[in-house]
Amino acid sequence: MRDALCGGPLHTQLSGTIAAPEIKVNMGSDSGKDPYATAFLRQRGYGWLLEVEEDDGEDNKPLLDELDIDVKDIYYKIRCVLMPMPSLGYNRQVVRDNPDFWGPLAVVLLFSMISIYGQFRVVSWIITIWIFGSLTIFLLARVLGGEVSYGQVLGVIGYSLLPLIVIAPFLLVIGGFEVVSTFIKLFGVFWAAYSAASLLVGDEFKTKKPLLIYPIFLLYIYFLSLYTGV
Fold first, then answer.
1. DSSP string, the chain
2. What is the pLDDT of residues 152-195, one digit of tens each?
3. What is the mean pLDDT of the segment spanning 9-36?
4. pTM of the shown model
């Protein structure tokens, strides 16, 4: 100040530092959330509400795998039913020993569709006969001492409708010839009943085989009557 009053030059020296504000970045799993709410939930034992499940790429399976549908297995079983002769070399016991649901259901629905003739009530009726008819065969087989499950009977009865589906186009073509048409119907019923009975009727039945073969035969006659309208 004295220098200024005397007319001398004024020398001012300024020095110092500016402190930057401390910034904390939350890189934890609770990023983007209210820390007070997070702490409150964790103290109360509700921290699991804050957990986020990570998508696992291995869980993204194809739809057929999710529904447990094996197309190759179904195709093989179809061939086993349509060609029941042992000399062809097919392992036909796979139809009984490895039952599935989607294959027989597809066959029953296909048989229902060709049996509609404008009457949609036939579809539900055929499915009902398939379920309860198979249940009857299952109960009878168990009473006679057979070692079969309801799923096995349901699969075999469903797959064995394939012969009736095969003869359906022939019945449409030669429906006017009663003798030939009757012969084809009997052939289709015997074909279906033989395919089912050869899989369900094992050696454990011994002399009681006709007691199980006969109701299987009647069941496919009834299925055919739903198709033909007789």
1. -HHHHTT-----------PPPP-----STTTTS-HHHHHHHHHTT-GGGG--PPPPGGG---HHHHTT--HHHHHHHHHHHH---GGG---THHHHHS--SHHHHHHHHHHHHHT-TT-THHHHHHHHHHHHHHHHHHHHHHHTT----HHHHHHHHHHTTHHHHHHHHHHHHSTT-HHHHHHHHHHHHHHHHHHHHHHH--TTSGGGHHHHHHHHHHHHHHHHHHHH--
2. 899 999 999 999 988 888 887 876 778 888 899 899 999 999 88
3. 50
4. 0.65
